[in-house]
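Throughout our pipeline, every protein is held as a single compact record rather than as scattered files. Nothing more is needed to write down the fold, since each code stands for a local backbone conformation. The record that follows is passed on verbatim for readers who wish to inspect the format.
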Amino acid sequence: MPEDPTQDFGAFLRQARERQGISLRQIADCTKISLPALEALERNDISRLPGGLFSRAFGRAYAREAGVDVEEAVRRFVARFPEASGEESPV
């Protein structure tokens, strides 16, 4: 049974990072995203992030550094946080 991408975006990133043996500090250093913002992503607390496309960009940058397929990460982010995906609603 396929994994539900809406379940836990933060755990998806954290598990990928841990599989690679990368610390959250290393992700912060490489992406120039603050450690508290990355911790918030891992907790699925996007209220701690800048809004809209910036939140999605943070998830994308984290995914890239953690060795995750970036497009898969973006799909998961949009599924989990549609209100923060930065996508326009159809008219």
